[in-house]
Amino acid sequence: MADLSLQHIHKQYDNKGLEVVKDFNLDIKNGEFIVFVGPSGCGKSTTLRMIAGLEDITSGKLLINGQEMNNVLPKNRDIAMVFQNYALYPHMSVFDNIAFGLKIKRLPRKEIRSKVEEAANILGLEQFLKRKPKALSGGQRQRVALGRAIVRDASIFLMDEPLSNLDAKLRVQMRAEIIKLHNRLKTTTIYVTHDQTEALTMADRIVILNNGEIMQVGTPKEVYNYP
Ligand code: ADP
Ligand code: ADP
């Protein structure tokens, strides 16, 4: 369960530099699937990284469930992130890749096994648990990355162009799988993409960014008159 409030968020990477995020204001309700869309360099990743705590907020406030988060460490934010390049450990099996965060948390072995198996089941990875990432297809690798996020039971998912390394056919398939996953888990999600079709077909609400500023916020119907 999490709602988010971004209030007058600004970002400058250095004192003299340009503002790459300018007065970003957005309230996100628990369970929403929000898509940030806009051209490369418009500030999507930076905003996501500020929410995750991987980048400092220059000014403004980030609230999660009403609590100010600006100075909370990433590991204490109850957020799971999925990246474009999967960020899997090549020497570890699929099982160990999915289990990694749970092992660090020192969860009991039985509980780890059952969580990993449940995630593998949701994602159709049951037969691949012993394989190494290099023996998987791109889509399977991205499912492992999703599995790693699922087992954390985080109340927020942040996805940074998770499908952009996949071919067109697989992108369409994984789009549907991510939505299915969302309908099942109802985890508050922010999904970043430069692909309008992804925004249209996946979002509850779309946030259109350009040059560090919000241009428009609305449902696919409000924004593009779709479907
Ligand atoms: P997007 O995700 O929309 O492609 P980014 O948030 O990655 O955009 O980048 C927004 C702007 O900030 C770009 O001009 C980019 O070059 C700049 N930028 C991103 N990361 C850094 C950084 N670590 N240091 C300085 N500038 C950065
Ligand atoms: P993305 O599109 O996801 O932001 P990039 O390839 O643009 O990926 O950026 C990769 C990494 O480089 C990120 O950690 C980002 O913060 C950093 N980065 C991007 N632009 C700049 C920049 N102009 N100066 C320094 N670091 C940057």
TrEMBL record:
Keyword set includes Nucleotide-binding: yes
One Gene Ontology term, aspect cellular component: ATP-binding cassette (ABC) transporter complex, substrate-binding subunit-containing
Gene Ontology annotations of biological process type: carbohydrate transport
Domain ABC transporter residues, every copy: 4-227
Keyword set includes RNA-binding: no
GO molecular function, one term: ATP hydrolysis activity
UniProt entry keywords in alphabetical sequence: ATP-binding, Nucleotide-binding, Sugar transport, Transport
Protein name, entry field: Multiple sugar transport system ATP-binding protein
